[in-house]
Amino acid sequence: MALTTVHLMRHGEVHNPEGILYGRLPGYHLSERGHAMARTVAAHLAGERVPTTPDDVEPVRHDITHVIASPLQRAQETATPIAAAFGLELGTDERLIEAGNYFEGMTFGVGDGSLRHPQHWPRLWNPWRPSWGEAYKDQVARMRAAIDDARRLAEGHEVVLVSHQLPVWITRSSFEGRRYLHDPRKRECSLASVTSLRFDGDRYVGLSYTEPAADLLPGANKVAGA
């Protein structure tokens, strides 16, 4: 059977000085650091990263044959340098879009955020669905359909799908057989991270998680305890 890898990538850092829960709103683009993250992941996948220590693993050029992104600007901007690194045309798939959320366009929190207002509280009654947005099972259904199509498209090779944190994490949970209810603070899905699903034919055989742009994450260069 053909061995195929589907890389689920989260977009890079977004320019969002107001701290808005931007969701599916248009116009939210990558910050300067977000663009640097995208270029770093592109270089990593293309095998262009320069080893920094004698023990560093030699870079390997991945066998990427397709790059497909969510239609939202931040995902498109993240995917663009990856497609360019492999000389590919960037594809778009609506099924990779961010999860729908009632709190879109608001700040989210107890202090000055939307949670201080009682009219929003009924939206929080059921974390299993969740009651504040698109059902987890619906996110998994559309993401897995996109993954299946991408796997067939790139059969025997590798494909990059650029999406968003919650859809990627919930989809990973479905492959690993974990329940969907979770603590958002414990998601292993940092900015510009890559969750790689491996398939033997149409059979899922495992996954790995990497952070090629870890050095660019907020706070990465801070001294411990500072």
How would you portray this structure in words?
With 226 residues, the protein is α/β, with parallel strands linked by helices. The chain has one domain (3-108, 134-216): Rossmann fold (3-Layer(aba) Sandwich). Helices cover 25% and strands 17% of the residues. The chain is built from 4 helices and 6 strands. The chain has helices spanning 32-45, 73-85, 136-153, 165-176, and strands spanning 3-10, 64-69, 90-92, 158-163, 194-200, 203-210. It has a 6-stranded mixed sheet, with helices on both faces. A hairpin with a 2-residue loop joins strand 5 and strand 6. InterPro entries: His_Pase_superF_clade-1, His_PPase_superfam, PGM_Phosphatase. It comes from Flavimobilis rhizosphaerae. Pfam families: His_Phos_1. This is Histidine phosphatase family protein.
Largest sheet: 6 strands, mixed
CATH superfamily: Phosphoglycerate mutase-like
Class by alpha and beta content: alpha/beta
CATH class: Alpha Beta
Beta strand %: 15-25%
The whole-angstrom Rg is 18 Å
Distance between the termini: 51 Å
Question: Unreliable segments (pLDDT under 50, ≥5 consecutive)?
Answer: 109-117, 119-123, 222-226
**H/I helix tally:** 4
Supply the number of structural domains: 1
Helix proportion: 25-40%
Q: What is the level-2 CATH architecture name?
A: 3-Layer(aba) Sandwich
Provide mean pLDDT, rounded: 85
The ordered H/E elements are EHEHEHEHEE
Pfam families: His_Phos_1 (PF00300)
Organism: Flavimobilis rhizosphaerae
Protein name: Histidine phosphatase family protein
InterPro entries: His_Pase_superF_clade-1, His_PPase_superfam, PGM_Phosphatase
